[in-house]
Amino acid sequence: MRLVLGRAAPDAPGPARDRLTHLAGLLNACGIDAPVTDAIHAEIWTKLAANVASNPLSVITGATLEAMATDPATYAIIRASLDEAIATGAACGISTLKPAEAICAMMAAAGPHETSMLQDFRAGRTLETVAIGDALVALARALGVPTPIIDTLLGLVAFQRRSLAGKEQTS
After folding, report:
1. Can you tell me the mean pLDDT for 15-20?
2. Is residue 70 located within the same domain as residue 126?
3. CB-based contacts of 144: which residues, under 8 Å, 6+ apart?
4. Count of the separate structural domains present in the chain
5. Of 20, 95, 127, 135, which sits 20 to 30 A from 50 (CA to CA)?
6. Beta carbons within 10 angstroms of residue 114's beta carbon
């Protein structure tokens, strides 16, 4: 498990960095990889970008992170949606974002892991498309960043949910 720690305002005065370092030491002693960063906004945006690129696609394909990140067709979709999410982050002023290739490599290294959205879909639970995708798309629109691939992925997930709901009603 990995938990990145950082301050929302890394330049603010105070002993918070020492407290974060102490907390990281405690977590590391418990077996949790807990690095401390001065670029927490970039870490959070990287996580959001990875989720928006992989979660909806996993619902559509039923595939694991490793499978999607190593298949040429799904890799291209992931890469294009990462580019859109990274462009949105850059438009927000986050300048230290991980490149798409590095995020794809992290996905491939995750192995045969099913995304939480795929697990929720299979269990019939509500999907996090609003928090993961719609919020990013709304921000991108406000900033004038086009997101055609992310829009398509979210639309296909919505279609799949409606289609499944229709089948349940006719059963």
Report:
1. 79
2. yes
3. 91
4. 2
5. 20
6. 16
